[in-house]
């Protein structure tokens, strides 16, 4: 497995501002993913972060709202843009080392509160 | 499209007893994986157990085992000798090994497990 860290662990932001969440893996991974988890709810995939190309977004999520970068095989960022209280959630990143993606390991999440 | 359903929002068990968490899934793919993840209050998602769909033998990991019924599309988790540290939210998840949703995890709604001393 691998160890994933996320920064910040939590933040409180004002509506209309943006926050960038960093995800760092301690070893190279093939794919990285970003999820949203509203309190007490399940995880919903936002996008797949591809190294060297644009992220692939799931239905209901758009690049203008959630721009993602993946500059190398150990790092990715997710920006939550023009935030509203509805964006208050836990954001988690995960990594998968092989091309079957059948073992994903997760970061500890970033708890975002938008006022 | 994949769907995963956990019909038990909450479950409780006495310490040292056995508990079973239920999960059903639906997928059009023939090759897929099924998982149980544990999420304690720390929010860290921890992989508990994994089952390859092509394997008939049920996966086991120490006190954790699954009952995989492929025809019924059922994938339950049995926790034996429950410990206080098992208290967490448990998520069932599926991952297609092919098709348009290749590599994407789909999660169920989660089951909160409480362990009573």
Task: List the keywords.
heterodimer, A: 115 residues, mainly beta, seven-stranded mixed sheet, four-stranded antiparallel sheet, B: 117 residues, six-stranded mixed sheet, globular
Please characterize this protein's 3D structure:
The complex is a heterodimer of chains A (115) and B (117). Chain A is mostly beta strands and 115 residues long. In chain A, the strands form 2 sheets. In chain A, strands 2, 4, 5, 6, 9, 10 and 11 form a 7-stranded mixed sheet that branches. In chain A, strands 1-3-8-7 form a 4-stranded antiparallel sheet, with no helix packed on it. Chain B contains no helices and 12 strands. The N and C termini of chain B lie far apart (41 Å). The mean pLDDT of chain B is 93. Classes of the chains: A mainly beta (115), B mainly beta (117).
What can be said about this structure in brief?
Chain A is mainly beta and about 120 residues long.
Mean pLDDT of chain A: 92
Tell me the distance between the termini of chain B: 41 Å
The multimeric state of the shown protein is heterodimer
Query: How many separate helices of chain B?
Result: 0
Query: What would you call the structural class of chain B?
Result: mainly beta
Number of strands of chain A: 11
**Rg of chain A (CA only):** 13 Å
What is the fold's blueprint, element by element?
The complex is a heterodimer of chains A (115) and B (117).
Chain A: E1 4-7, E2 10-13, E3 19-25, E4 31-37, E5 43-49, E6 56-57, E7 68-72, E8 75-80, E9 89-96, E10 104-106, E11 110-114
Chain B: E1 3-5, E2 10-14, E3 19-21, E4 24-26, E5 32-39, E6 46-52, E7 60-61, E8 64-69, E9 74-79, E10 88-96, E11 105-107, E12 111-116
Parallel strand pairs in B: 2-12
Antiparallel strand pairs in B: 1-4, 3-9, 5-6, 5-10, 7-8, 8-9, 10-11, 10-12
């Amino acid at each position: 497995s691998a160890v994933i860290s996320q920064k910040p662990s939590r933040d409180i932001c004002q509506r209309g501002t943006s926050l960038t969440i960093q995800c760092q893996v301690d070893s190279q991974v093939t794919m990285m993913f970003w999820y949203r988890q509203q309190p007490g709810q399940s995880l919903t995939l936002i996008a797949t972060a591809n190294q060297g190309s644009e992220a692939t977004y799931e239905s209901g999520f758009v690049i203008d709202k959630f721009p993602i970068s993946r500059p190398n095989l150990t790092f990715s960022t997710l920006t939550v843009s023009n935030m509203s209280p509805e964006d208050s959630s836990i954001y988690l990143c995960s990594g998968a080392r092989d091309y079957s993606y059948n073992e994903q390991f997760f970061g500890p999440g970033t708890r975002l509160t938008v006022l | 499209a994949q769907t995963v359903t956990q019909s038990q929002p909450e479950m409780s068990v006495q310490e040292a007893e056995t508990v079973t968490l239920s999960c059903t899934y639906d997928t059009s793919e023939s090759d897929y994986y099924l998982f149980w993840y544990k999420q304690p209050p720390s929010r860290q998602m921890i992989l508990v157990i994994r089952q390859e769909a092509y394997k008939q033998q049920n996966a086991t990991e120490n006190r954790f085992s699954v009952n995989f019924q492929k025809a019924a599309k059922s994938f339950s988790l049995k926790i034996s000798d429950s410990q206080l540290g098992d208290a967490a939210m448990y998520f069932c998840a599926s991952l297609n090994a092919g098709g348009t949703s290749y590599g994407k995890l789909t999660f169920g709604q989660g089951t909160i497990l409480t362990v009573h001393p």
